[in-house]
Amino acid sequence: MSGLRKFDFDTEFDAGGGVAYQAPRPKTAFTPEEVEQIRAEAYAQGERAGLQSVNAAQARAMAEVAAACRQALPTLAQVAHEHRVGSAQLALACGRAIADAALARFPEAPLQAALESLAREIESAPRLVISVAPAMAEYMQEKVGHAVAATGFAGALTIRTDTSIPPYAFTLDFGDGAAAFDPQAAAQRVSEALEAALAAEGLHAEPLIPGT
C-alpha cells in the first residue's frame, strides 16, 4: 500500500463541535496595490534569473575562449618561429646578393681592408706575397700597389696566381704571418652561425609583437 497518501483535513472540530482549525483558503481577490507588488516581485525574479543565465553563458564562453587560446599558443609559437627563420634567411640572401654585387664592383676592397688591418705586421716585413685567382691578377696589380704603399711597406711585393683560389678571394704571406679571405667560406660561416642561433633560440624567442 505504498501508493496511498495520508489525507489532510482542511477543517478540524473540537469536542463541542466548534471549529478548532481551518486551513487558510487561497486568496482570490487582490487590491491594485497588491497586484502591482506581485508584478514587481515577479519582474525582479525574472530579471535575476535572466542575469544569472547571462552570467553563466558568459563564464562558459570565456572558459571556451581560454581553452582555445591554450590550444592555439603552441601553433602560434611555431608559426612565429617559422616566420622568424624565414625572415632571417631572406635577410641573409639579400646580404649575399649585395655582397656579391659589391665584390663585382670593387673586388679590391677586401684586400685593401686586410692590408689596413695588418699594416703594423706588414710594415717591417721584408717581402709580401699576395695570391689571387688568375682572372684577378692584372686587376689587383693595378689597384693594390697604392694600398700596400699606404701601409708603409717598403719590401718586395709579389702578386701570384693560384688556380685553387676562387674569384675575389686572396691570401697574404708576409713572412712572420699570413692571412686569407674567401667570400664563399665567409658566407657559409655566417649562414652556419645564423642557423645555430635560430636553433638555440627555438620557440623561446622574444614575441614578434612587443608587449605580448
Helices and strands, with pairings:
Blueprint: E1 11-13, E2 19-22, H1 32-105, H2 109-117, H3 119-123, E3 127-132, H4 137-150, E4 156-161, E5 170-173, E6 178-181, H5 183-201
Parallel strand pairs: 3-4
Antiparallel strand pairs: 1-2, 3-5, 5-6
Q: Give the termini distance in whole angstroms.
A: 71 Å
Q: What would the average pLDDT be, to the nearest integer? A: 78
Structural class: alpha+beta
Helix content: 55-70%
Strand content: 5-15%
Low-confidence stretches: 208-212
Shape: rod-shaped
Count up the helices. 5
> Taking strands numbered 1, 2, ... along the chain, how are they ordered across the largest sheet?
4-3-5-6
Secondary-structure element series = EEHHHEHEEEH
Strand element count: 6
**Rg (C-alpha, Å):** 46 Å
Largest sheet composition: 4 strands, mixed
